[in-house]
Amino acid sequence: MNSKTRFMVQAALLAAIYVVLTVAFAPISYGPVQVRISEMLTVLPFFTPAAIPGLFVGAMIANAYGGLGIIDVVVGSSATLIAALITFRMKRRVLAPLPPVLVNAVVIGAMLTYLFQLPLIPTMIYVGMGQLVACYGLGYPFMLAIEKYGNRIFNPMTTTAKTSSSPRGR
Q1: Which one has a higher pLDDT value, 147 or 21?
Q2: How far apart are CA 146 and CA 68, in angstroms?
Q3: CB of 99 closer than 8 Å to CB of 146
Q4: Separation CA 20–CA 165 (nearest Å)
Q5: pLDDT (tens digit, 9 = 90+) per residue, 47-89?
Q6: Is 4 exposed, middle or buried (0-12, 13-18, 19+ CB in 10 A)?
């Protein structure tokens, strides 16, 4: 399989997994107080650039199911894209889950404030807390597992090769 095909397949699989996890856990995936289990996947751009379009497309599809309309599809998915791009550029493993936490707390918090006429700061805090659970509580252990078994998942030719043995991965 050539590298372009592998990239597209990885992105498509990640998009599908994101959608399935979001919709399967719908009661806690949407709304002002949420913990999207699928957000654990937002650490994956640290390992492979294929996760960037995969997460973006997955968020678009999942947000279309959420019932908040086009604003969530556009704004929510854009927040995921921005966070994925920043995560891809992170040099330290422990900081990789941070961009989705911060970007979503601000962007999704502001969007939910607008949609539901909620107070801004508490809404941002609630979204941020849910993101902390998903990204650090689930995503960080997921990162550790990928570092241990990632060579079986991601082809070294298409990954960013940030491992715990390099100074960038610590």
Answers
A1: 21
A2: 33
A3: no
A4: 33
A5: 999 999 999 999 999 999 999 999 999 999 999 999 999 999 9
A6: exposed
Domain boundaries, the chain: 3-28+35-161
Q: Report d(CA 109, CA 90) in Å as an integer.
A: 23
> What is the Cα–Cα distance from 93 to 112, expressed in whole angstroms?
30
pLDDT of 15 reads 98
Given a contact cutoff of 8 angstroms between Cβ atoms, the answer to whether 36 and 108 are in contact is no
Buried b (16+ CB within 10 A) or exposed e, 11-39: beebbebbbebbeeeeeebbbbebbbbbb
Q: Quick check: 47 and 146 in contact, CB under 8 A?
A: yes
Per the CB < 8 A criterion, the answer to whether 85 and 52 are in contact is yes
Helix axes 98-116, 120-132, angle to 10 degrees: 140
The answer to whether the beta carbons of residues 146 and 153 sit under 8 Å apart is: yes
3-state secondary structure of 118: coil
Integer CA distances (angstroms), 79 to 69, 104, 124, 154, 170, in order = 16, 6, 13, 25, 26
- Rounded Cα–Cα distance for residues 168 and 101 (Å): 21
Of 67, 133, 72, nearest to 100 by C-alpha is 133
